[in-house]
């Protein structure tokens, strides 16, 4: 039997979070954190509602996952996030020593890869999973904003 | 009359926060945020107590200051922090568009300047205010830890 727990499978859950952000009039970015194929944290961008630049989806997911685990290091965890993390979120992921980061769309302007933010040596990165879906959602959000 | 509101004046308040962190068995880093010579946020590192890598003094101060202001941009605000911010905190400060960052001791290993994290173009930086006091506190903390 084929393994149903693919990166696409979990990224769809992150996209559902991004859609929830969209409905709340937030830039639609969603994240989940998974350990042993189990979702232990789910979150979406809340910077507007909370009036807080630190309320990115990833930051909330890191806090929630650490709370679930009962420790601050996210060993054996994978973050799925619809948009490439920024400097802040990549910096937080560095401290968390997370095992794997899977992101959807690249952020050519503010993404950590262009900005040169360092991840922990233990962290591996997978790019471009359901990137079109993530980008379409963000484009649709800004198109509605311009109306 | 001399202006009492110098960078040293406010950094002493950040150092008091660092001492509170020390008493809680946290790596002693403290921060305050000031607007119009008024302290609107004070915080210290709580990563151990909260089991959360995102609970750096600066992150908490940014959230608290935005809450006080009622908006997420820290225009006309100055952050005083006893230790040079890391990638995560510098990344958060980038988003906040804070006017000025004053830090005490440099962090040669994990500080944002060595790591190359970008601040917002509107942000100015002052380095080395009461740096010895900040460093002494951190050295004393780790010396006690090794006992």
Q: Give me the secondary-structure category of chain A.
A: alpha/beta
Q: Assign the CATH topology of chain A.
A: Cytidine Deaminase, domain 2
Largest sheet of chain A: 5 strands, mixed
Overall geometry of chain A = globular
Instruction: State the helix count of chain A.
Output: 5
Taken in chain order, the helices and strands of chain A follow as HEEHEHEHEH
Q: Supply the number of structural domains of chain A.
A: 1
Q: Trace the largest sheet of chain A across and list its strands.
A: 2-1-3-4-5
Catalogue the unreliable spans of chain A: none
Q: Termini distance of chain A?
A: 48 Å
* The top level CATH class name of chain A: Alpha Beta
The assembly state of the depicted protein chains is homodimer
Report the helical percentage of chain A. 40-55%
Number of strands of chain A: 5
Please characterize this protein's 3D structure.
- With 147 residues, chain A is an alpha/beta fold.
- The first copy, chain A, has a single domain, classed as Cytidine Deaminase, domain 2 (3-Layer(aba) Sandwich), CATH 3.40.140.10.
- Helix content of chain A is 41%, strand content 20%.
- Chain A has a five-stranded mixed beta sheet.
- In chain A, a hairpin with a 2-residue loop joins strand 1 (30-35) and strand 2.
- The mean pLDDT of chain A is 97.
- At the A-B interface, helix 2 and helix 3 of A face helix 2 and helix 3 of B.
């Amino acid at each position: 039997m084929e393994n149903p727990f693919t990166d696409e499978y979990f990224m769809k859950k992150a996209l559902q979070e991004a859609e929830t952000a969209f409905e709340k009039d937030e830039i639609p970015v969603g994240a989940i954190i998974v350990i042993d194929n189990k979702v232990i944290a789910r979150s979406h961008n809340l910077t507007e509602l909370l009036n807080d630049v630190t309320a990115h989806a990833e930051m909330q997911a890191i806090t929630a996952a650490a709370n679930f685990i009962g420790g601050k290091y996210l060993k054996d965890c994978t973050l799925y996030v619809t948009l490439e993390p920024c400097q802040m979120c990549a910096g937080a992921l560095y401290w968390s020593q997370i095992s794997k980061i899977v992101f959807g769309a690249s952020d050519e302007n503010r993404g950590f890869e262009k900005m040169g933010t360092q991840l922990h040596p233990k962290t591996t990165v997978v790019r471009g999973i359901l990137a079109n879906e993530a980008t379409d959602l963000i484009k649709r959000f800004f198109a509605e904003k311009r109306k």
